[in-house]
Amino acid sequence: DWCYVYNFANPQNPIALSLPPGKGKELQQEMDSLIETLKRELPKAFESKDFEEKLHEVTERGRKEKEEIMARLASLAEEKGFSVKFSPAGVVVVPLIGGKVVAEEEILKNSYLRDLVESRRKEFEPLLKEYLRKLRQVDKEIQAKVAQLREEVARFVVDHYMDDMLEKYQDLDRVKEYLENVKGDLVKGAELFLQFPAAQDNPLLLLQLERSLAKYKVNVVVDNGGLTCAPVVYETHPTYANLFGRIGVRAELGVYVADFQQIVPGSIHRANGGYLVLKVPELFANLGVWRALKRALVHREISIQPLMDELGLPHPVTTLRPESIPLDVKVLLIGERLHYHLLMALDPEFEELFKVKADFDTQVDNTSQVRRDYRRLLDRLVERDGLLPLAPSGAAYLLEYTCRLAQDRRKLSLQMSKVVGILREANHWARGRGKDRIEAEDVEKALEEKVYRANLLEERLQELIQRDVIVVETRGKEVGQCNGLSVVDLVDYSFGRPHRITARAFAGEKGIVNIEREADLSGKIFNKAVLILSGYLGHQYGRGRPLSLSATLAFEQSYSVVEGDSASAAELMALLSAIAQVPLAQNLAVTGSVDQRGRIQSVGGINEKIEGFLHCCKVKGLTGDQGVIFPAANLEHLQLSHHVVKAVEEGRFHLYPVSQVDEAIALLTGMEPGERDEEGRFPPNTFHALVGAKLEEFRKAALKKKEEGDEEGGK
Questions:
Q1: Is 188 in the active site?
Q2: Active-site residue, selected from the candidate residues 303, 522, 566, 641
Q3: Is residue 498 domain-shared with residue 390, that is, in the same domain?
């Protein structure tokens, strides 16, 4: 526990006391009880018969001593020709002539009497001063003895009620020192307590007295009495004041004042000795917090000061400077990987202060044990939120959904906020059906409703495709045209959409012209994928002879930046079709990236792409022969919606996993791709043979044009 108490030597610097857990509240209560007890007992002690007798004895002894001194003074004065009279206003000295008092007017008229009285006065005044000094000394002694008596009585009462406290905290040196200071100040300030009986009918005086005694209170800023382990504090709103505490002020007689009771702790105080958890975005959203946190960790102490002081700005109110508290805390920063790398790169102190990195995965392996654990987790969430029990079918459907979130059948997603959201909505639909359990039907309904709320843009695009505003062919065959697939990511919803990819090829030396790049509508990865196509053409058809080709590639009706390499397989199909003048089936869409050796590589968003093309085929009309050619490497990533699975099972839609370009060629053209023989030639009437022959024509045409140009140049 940590407490702030009054500093009797320097009130502007409150003292921080450390106590065992739970002892801070005890000390606070004991001090409050002590003050309340002294309010009753000190007035009683000073009203007791014993005190009155001792006080009377002291004052009576002093009175007699003063009377003796005054009697001696009166006798001496008479011998010197004066009469001394004592009054509350002081001492009056009257001259005597013949033992009788003579009026001042008569003395002034008679020069002889005047000189006589003056000479006697000069002789008597030193004696008078000495006796008056003795009287004052006696008064001082009486006052000192009375003060001593009052102090003895106050000390007796205070000691009586504080000895147990001092003994209880004798092992805590600083607490014991504080209590000794309290005891001394209570003895000196006992007069305050004596005013309480008379102040009961005077609210203003009572309030002033209470404020005067407030310095004896204990401000418990950290109470760990209820903890059985180290504290763990998660600060969700880490403003400067919430994290490091603040010093409040109060208005008093038109002036703002602060004292140690206005010290309010921050979350770092509560986490001291344990763990403090902070989120990085919220941490940096608050001015001055990061720098103050680093300083506290470097110097291992907590200092409470206003934010304006932290920023070096003048403060309108004179504030306290509380004693710093030693800091022993483990700080856990929660953020994205980007936050970690930015801090590592931009803040040289970060690596020194935060040495341990814990990188949490958002997925777990889809094993039987993990599925059982996941089911138990779902049951606990159901119990926590007061939802209907989860039926086995409902749990299975939710686990399928987590596979979909992970984009991998071998993994389960840990994006629990999304899972819990579907679970709660499924509970709503189950209750609406009057069921006592959440079943697969309810989870499916929740997922459908979630899609419905987010897929307005997808519906509009499908409508445009249906009306042929956006042209997508799903029937017949076309030369140099292939259906590619992409994913539109709306943050809360992603969907696949088809693209009409076209290519044109002719004799020339320009190579493959990427129209998207020329129009600044392509990203770097997309451009790289197009360049890889040149590598494939050279590897497949350019062995032993140079290639002469001019070709264009375009995403038709694309008006935004295209990025990624997942359309490179479709681009290659369109390009080869344009070269060989062999039509491609439009009832199939292609997705996948291609390497220079013609291997089809995996892509992302495979589920959304397949579902997107099926939706397109539905609005254009399902024929039963439509489908998607996709990388075989993506088979383990398939987690398709149930309506896609049903369409495939019924033979109304088809999926073709491929691993080589030749497999896609065969599906799209119906021709044999062809393999090179020992002499490096393709068999006649195969697809590659047609492409090779056409490229040879392009080469000869280019060579002839060059020779004709050279002849014209020679002339």
A1: no
A2: 566
A3: no
